[in-house]
Write a structure and sequence with these properties.
The chain is mainly alpha-helical and 178 residues long. The chain is 51% helix and 0% strand.
Protein backbone atom coordinates (compact mmCIF):
# COMPACT_ATOMS: atom_id res chain seq x y z
CA UNK A 1 0.00 0.00 0.00
CA UNK A 2 1.15 3.48 -0.64
CA UNK A 3 2.43 5.24 2.44
CA UNK A 4 2.70 1.97 4.31
CA UNK A 5 5.76 -0.13 5.02
CA UNK A 6 3.54 -3.12 5.74
CA UNK A 7 2.33 -4.67 2.56
CA UNK A 8 2.98 -7.77 0.58
CA UNK A 9 2.71 -8.91 -2.96
CA UNK A 10 -0.74 -10.27 -2.16
CA UNK A 11 -1.41 -7.42 0.10
CA UNK A 12 -3.44 -4.45 0.35
CA UNK A 13 -4.53 -3.80 -1.42
CA UNK A 14 -6.49 -4.04 -4.21
CA UNK A 15 -6.39 -5.48 -7.59
CA UNK A 16 -5.00 -3.90 -10.70
CA UNK A 17 -8.38 -2.66 -11.77
CA UNK A 18 -9.52 0.89 -11.31
CA UNK A 19 -11.19 1.60 -8.01
CA UNK A 20 -13.62 4.12 -9.32
CA UNK A 21 -12.98 7.70 -10.23
CA UNK A 22 -12.05 10.40 -7.80
CA UNK A 23 -14.10 13.60 -8.01
CA UNK A 24 -11.19 15.30 -9.81
CA UNK A 25 -11.02 12.50 -12.38
CA UNK A 26 -14.79 12.63 -12.89
CA UNK A 27 -14.53 16.37 -13.49
CA UNK A 28 -11.67 15.94 -15.97
CA UNK A 29 -13.61 13.30 -17.92
CA UNK A 30 -16.68 15.53 -17.96
CA UNK A 31 -14.62 18.39 -19.46
CA UNK A 32 -13.45 16.01 -22.22
CA UNK A 33 -17.05 15.05 -23.05
CA UNK A 34 -18.15 18.70 -23.07
CA UNK A 35 -15.26 19.60 -25.38
CA UNK A 36 -16.45 16.82 -27.68
CA UNK A 37 -19.95 18.35 -27.62
CA UNK A 38 -18.55 21.69 -28.79
CA UNK A 39 -16.83 19.95 -31.70
CA UNK A 40 -20.01 18.00 -32.52
CA UNK A 41 -21.83 21.34 -32.84
CA UNK A 42 -19.03 22.60 -35.09
CA UNK A 43 -19.59 19.61 -37.38
CA UNK A 44 -16.35 17.73 -36.63
CA UNK A 45 -16.24 14.05 -37.57
CA UNK A 46 -16.13 11.30 -34.97
CA UNK A 47 -12.64 10.31 -36.04
CA UNK A 48 -11.35 13.90 -35.78
CA UNK A 49 -12.81 14.33 -32.30
CA UNK A 50 -11.34 11.00 -31.17
CA UNK A 51 -7.88 11.93 -32.43
CA UNK A 52 -7.98 15.41 -30.92
CA UNK A 53 -9.14 14.12 -27.52
CA UNK A 54 -6.97 10.99 -27.69
CA UNK A 55 -9.87 8.65 -26.94
CA UNK A 56 -11.35 5.67 -28.74
CA UNK A 57 -13.76 6.33 -31.60
CA UNK A 58 -16.35 4.11 -29.90
CA UNK A 59 -16.41 6.49 -26.93
CA UNK A 60 -16.93 9.47 -29.23
CA UNK A 61 -19.70 7.60 -31.09
CA UNK A 62 -21.42 6.88 -27.77
CA UNK A 63 -21.05 10.51 -26.66
CA UNK A 64 -22.40 11.77 -29.99
CA UNK A 65 -25.49 9.58 -29.64
CA UNK A 66 -26.11 10.86 -26.10
CA UNK A 67 -25.48 14.45 -27.28
CA UNK A 68 -27.99 14.11 -30.14
CA UNK A 69 -30.64 12.81 -27.75
CA UNK A 70 -30.09 15.26 -24.89
CA UNK A 71 -27.58 17.93 -25.84
CA UNK A 72 -24.48 18.87 -23.87
CA UNK A 73 -26.45 18.55 -20.60
CA UNK A 74 -26.73 14.81 -21.22
CA UNK A 75 -22.92 14.54 -21.22
CA UNK A 76 -22.57 15.95 -17.70
CA UNK A 77 -21.31 13.58 -15.02
CA UNK A 78 -24.00 11.71 -13.12
CA UNK A 79 -21.73 11.57 -10.06
CA UNK A 80 -20.21 8.49 -8.45
CA UNK A 81 -21.78 5.13 -9.22
CA UNK A 82 -22.21 4.45 -5.54
CA UNK A 83 -21.84 6.43 -2.37
CA UNK A 84 -18.87 5.47 -0.25
CA UNK A 85 -19.93 3.76 2.97
CA UNK A 86 -17.18 5.30 5.09
CA UNK A 87 -17.33 8.95 6.07
CA UNK A 88 -14.21 11.11 5.77
CA UNK A 89 -13.64 10.77 9.53
CA UNK A 90 -14.00 6.98 9.38
CA UNK A 91 -11.59 6.81 6.44
CA UNK A 92 -9.01 8.82 8.44
CA UNK A 93 -9.34 6.39 11.33
CA UNK A 94 -9.07 3.37 9.04
CA UNK A 95 -5.97 4.83 7.39
CA UNK A 96 -4.38 5.42 10.80
CA UNK A 97 -5.07 1.81 11.78
CA UNK A 98 -3.66 0.52 8.50
CA UNK A 99 -0.48 2.50 9.17
CA UNK A 100 -0.17 0.87 12.60
CA UNK A 101 0.22 -2.39 10.77
CA UNK A 102 -1.33 -5.84 10.91
CA UNK A 103 0.55 -6.80 14.09
CA UNK A 104 -1.44 -4.21 16.05
CA UNK A 105 -4.57 -6.15 15.07
CA UNK A 106 -3.25 -9.59 15.95
CA UNK A 107 -1.94 -10.70 12.56
CA UNK A 108 1.44 -11.88 13.75
CA UNK A 109 2.15 -14.56 11.13
CA UNK A 110 3.28 -11.92 8.63
CA UNK A 111 3.33 -8.17 8.21
CA UNK A 112 1.00 -7.96 5.23
CA UNK A 113 -2.36 -6.30 4.94
CA UNK A 114 -4.63 -8.27 2.66
CA UNK A 115 -8.01 -7.27 1.32
CA UNK A 116 -9.65 -9.86 3.57
CA UNK A 117 -7.89 -8.45 6.63
CA UNK A 118 -8.83 -4.89 5.75
CA UNK A 119 -12.44 -6.02 5.22
CA UNK A 120 -12.42 -7.57 8.70
CA UNK A 121 -10.83 -4.43 10.16
CA UNK A 122 -13.55 -2.23 8.64
CA UNK A 123 -16.20 -4.53 10.11
CA UNK A 124 -14.60 -4.46 13.56
CA UNK A 125 -14.08 -0.70 13.61
CA UNK A 126 -17.28 0.56 12.04
CA UNK A 127 -19.68 -2.40 11.78
CA UNK A 128 -19.90 -1.78 8.04
CA UNK A 129 -19.85 -4.61 5.52
CA UNK A 130 -17.75 -4.47 2.35
CA UNK A 131 -17.01 -7.12 -0.22
CA UNK A 132 -13.39 -7.98 -0.97
CA UNK A 133 -13.76 -6.22 -4.34
CA UNK A 134 -15.31 -3.22 -2.63
CA UNK A 135 -12.37 -2.97 -0.23
CA UNK A 136 -9.98 -3.08 -3.17
CA UNK A 137 -11.84 -0.28 -4.92
CA UNK A 138 -12.09 1.77 -1.73
CA UNK A 139 -8.35 1.52 -1.10
CA UNK A 140 -7.45 2.24 -4.72
CA UNK A 141 -9.76 5.25 -4.79
CA UNK A 142 -7.90 6.67 -1.79
CA UNK A 143 -4.47 6.13 -3.31
CA UNK A 144 -3.47 2.85 -1.68
CA UNK A 145 -2.03 0.25 -4.00
CA UNK A 146 -0.35 -3.12 -4.05
CA UNK A 147 3.29 -2.85 -3.08
CA UNK A 148 6.22 -5.19 -3.11
CA UNK A 149 8.02 -5.45 0.23
CA UNK A 150 10.94 -3.03 0.60
CA UNK A 151 13.20 -5.80 1.89
CA UNK A 152 13.73 -9.39 0.82
CA UNK A 153 13.15 -12.17 3.31
CA UNK A 154 16.30 -13.23 5.15
CA UNK A 155 15.56 -16.84 4.24
CA UNK A 156 15.50 -16.09 0.50
CA UNK A 157 18.02 -18.14 -1.47
CA UNK A 158 18.91 -16.12 -4.57
CA UNK A 159 20.73 -19.05 -6.17
CA UNK A 160 17.72 -21.35 -5.78
CA UNK A 161 15.45 -18.64 -7.21
CA UNK A 162 17.72 -18.21 -10.24
CA UNK A 163 17.78 -21.98 -10.87
CA UNK A 164 14.00 -22.21 -10.53
CA UNK A 165 13.50 -19.33 -12.99
CA UNK A 166 15.90 -20.84 -15.50
CA UNK A 167 14.90 -24.51 -15.28
CA UNK A 168 11.49 -25.04 -13.67
CA UNK A 169 9.51 -22.00 -14.81
CA UNK A 170 9.93 -22.59 -18.56
CA UNK A 171 8.54 -26.12 -18.10
CA UNK A 172 5.60 -24.98 -15.97
CA UNK A 173 4.73 -21.90 -17.97
CA UNK A 174 2.08 -22.48 -20.62
CA UNK A 175 3.14 -21.74 -24.19
CA UNK A 176 2.03 -18.38 -25.57
CA UNK A 177 -1.16 -18.41 -27.56
CA UNK A 178 -0.87 -17.11 -31.07
Amino acid sequence: MTDSPQCGTTGVCGNGQRGGYTPAEQERRERVRLQAAEWFEAGESTKTVAVRLRVHERSVTRWRKVWREGGAQALLSKGPVSKEKLSAKQWERLEAELRRGPLAWGYDEDQCWTLARVKTLIGRLFHIGYTIEGVGKLLHRHGWSVQVPARRALERDEEAVAIWKAEVWPEVKAPRRT
